[in-house]
## 1
Amino acid sequence: MKTDINISEFLSSRTEFKNKFSLREMYRATVYMPRAIIKMIENSKSQFIDINFAKRLQLAVTEVNGCAVCSYGHAKLALRQGISGKEISSFLSGKDHFMKPVEAKAIMFAQHYADSRGYPKKFTYDAIVSEYGKKQALIILSIIQIMTIGNMFGIPFSAFQSRLKGKPYKDSSLVAELGLLIAGICLIPIAIIHGVLRGLIGLPNVKLDKSLAKEQDGFQES
């Protein structure tokens, strides 16, 4: 219980955005949702990626994006699944004290995906495919995509929730928070149809940045 309280206090201290997303970014991310959900359902049966590994990926994404409500919800679930409070706090603080070597590249990719706002470098995804195989890489990608969508909706909701508690976020307004949430929810059905059509014509379920970057060698060697 003490650990749960500490996590709650850590997350409730947020009074400004760590990351903000536009309605266009929310729509683009939601387009990936149908096939990502299918992959996660398949994984629930196959267990290619175990539930604790998936939780660590989700915590890594939400730490980068700074979604308080998502972080708290997933931290509580992780506690129930037996992940220690110290490990959860480490992930939510952006530290790697508890990162397992076998999961390191996947977690680094999750952080990179969030840092790149859902537009990761192609070589980083290729490294994941090389490390885990295509089937597992697609599941890892899907877990990250679903968490990203949750963060995009959770961030304005977190700001709205904080406002109700008398702690409005800096550089935010009630109109912006509710407007983004309502507009995003209204666009979900259209985005889902868009995503299904993309799948039917064989388009990939991710957009990759094919340009090279200086950090390429560091990512491949880690």
Note: The CA atoms of residues 137 and 143 lie 10 Å apart.
## 2
Amino acid sequence: MHIREWPAEERPREKLLARGAPALSDAELLAIFLGSGLRGRDAVTTARELLGAHGPLRALLDRPPQDLVRLPALGLARACTLAAALELGRRHLAADLERGALLTDPQAAGRYFAQRLRGHAHEVFAALFLDTRHRAIAFEEMFRGGLDGAEVHPREVVRRALALNAAAVIVGHNHPSGNPEPSAADRAVTARLKQALGLVDLRLLDHFVIGDGAPVSLAARGWV
């Protein structure tokens, strides 16, 4: 049965308009993007097969465009469109943290670190530098490592903060394993960073660990 023959409340586009995008499943959202399915199958069935073979959704969307091109039901045009749509989403999320934006919601920083770091296959340690009113000055990837960790040099974070005339810093790193639970090494680095920044009257506001699910805030656990 073609999707046009489905009950109106079950069609992905009509459901989105009536109930909002969050009401749709991963397959239904992907089906809207695909527009049509492979021969003999509707878009939702094709989307489910794509997710079953190459998912879940995050694993599929983390693929570079060169890989997406080779997947069934995508091809060059859809792969490029999907990559562009993902980048639009990233830039939309980043808009709140453009230079001069006031960081009034601590969770916004966690979401920003997540969208910047979650897709990396190796550990990346980054810093968000803020002014005296906690407005974003710059976000920079400071250190890169392997699958198990990245060596962090607090003096380099301090040096960069001073160069940017920052007053406070939020840091974060990803766990490629997907487990966002902070390790003993993460807590030790946090303590060293806080001490090093404090020597020059700079504040460490938080340290986020990015994995699957919500970012983990070390400040929320009382470790900053």
Note: The chain has a mean pLDDT of 88.
## 3
Amino acid sequence: MLNNIRSKQVILIVAILLLGGFLFTRDVKGLVKPKDEAGKMPTNGQASTSSSAPKITIEEVSNTAKNLVSSATAKEIIALESSYKSASEADKITTAKTLAQKWDDVEQSIPSAMYLEVVANNEGTLSNWLNAGTRFLKAFDNTQDSLIQPAMLQKANNAFTKALAIDTNNNDAKTGLGITIVNGLGAPMSGIAMLLDVVKKDPKNLKANMNLGMFAIKSGQFDKAIIRFNDIISNIKATPDAYFYLATAYENLGKNTEAIDAYLNSKKLAANPTLSGFIDKKVAELKNKR
């Protein structure tokens, strides 16, 4: 029995890690933390990424990101950052927007989010805080740095909190805030309740539904995950990641035929060579178990 549980946990962890590197809708992955050793989600309301999150600066994350882009892009950004530092307060915001877009264009979401936060702090509109929060969540999802992750999550939480203060009925703000809570900034069930409220008002909200499906998988509620992802595929949008998570849920329940079908649909829609190679191996393994 213990070996079976551990086997399922391995399948789940490997699948989620691989999905993070393969699929394109990266804003809907890694939504909750795995269960603790006792098999329970944290319930004490204490954020696992609380005030201990390190302070980070734009300069620090920018210097790190420059090593990950081409020399031509790095030079262009250095020039923009020089203009940003010497600009008037009004011009700083315009340059910050340009830098945020430039970093996003080269898939460096951490410095991009930091500059969007500068914009939102100076022009605190709903859209600016939503943009900052969304980019911080993307940065949280994409980084494996255990020091940067909690800082990104806290900043996302702050941005969505400010967005929700501007418009208490905004579903994007509620969804984003719910994601940060489920990931550790509060009692997980309060985050789930927030996501369920979004889905109640907007049944076809893709991001909220995907988050609920991911929570079901990571909390071991595979039957609920299957229902959720089948509903997403049938009634909202058939995406590669929805099929992949559906396959993961089926596999954890030993429903290998259904898992194979879902994996193949994910492969077809994603058209990603790396994902295709993984799925081909996975399908071969599952066929041998039937």
Note: The CA atoms of residues 54 and 151 lie 6 Å apart.
## 4
Amino acid sequence: MAKIDWERVAQELDERGCATTGVVLERGICDELARGYGNDAQFRSKVVMARHGFGRGEYKYFAYPLPEIVQRLRTELYPRCAAVANGWQEKLGLDKRFPREHGEYLKLCHAAGQTQPTPLLLKYGADDYNCLHRDLYGDLVFPLQVAFLLSTPGENFTGGEFVLTEQRPRMQSRVEVVPLRQGEGVIFAVNERPVRGTKGVYRVGMRHGVSRLRSGQRFTMGIIFHDAL
């Protein structure tokens, strides 16, 4: 976590709704996480995207207790993301603030009936893709999440870029394509974010997805901070 320039990250999140972390996961950790996709004992469910119209490919949600590295990332990333999220709440004129520690936020989720863990591993093969979407899962939604690329572009796969769209009121959508390196994360808005216009601050809707893989296999880990119903 010490490698991340949080001042830059906060600025880019305010400006564009996404920011990269730089490489924070070593190759060995990435490879270990990707190999773990075949260990069903650590997951609570599997989703085949084509069955639900989500795209092509598949993903699995981790079960509690989370693997140590997943738990650590979720716990250590949250406070920095919460600081940005609370800044967004203030800009939007909202009274609600997010707790400083992730454990306190999870208590709120569980009290609302959202008790299922949401960190996940995603697997894509050639011609697979992920449609633009939002990861909401219940009434309580933390405004930011993080996705880490576990595979090496150009070596393990080609294509498969992370894509983010921003739907501005009465305007056409803006698209952001985020190239990532193995072990690098992208922090991005889950649902919406504040934008300052000529008449004050307004909300823009955000969606994210993955473009079509042209070849190879791509693994990604998603760190979502709110739990699911």
Note: The first helix runs from residue 6 to 16.
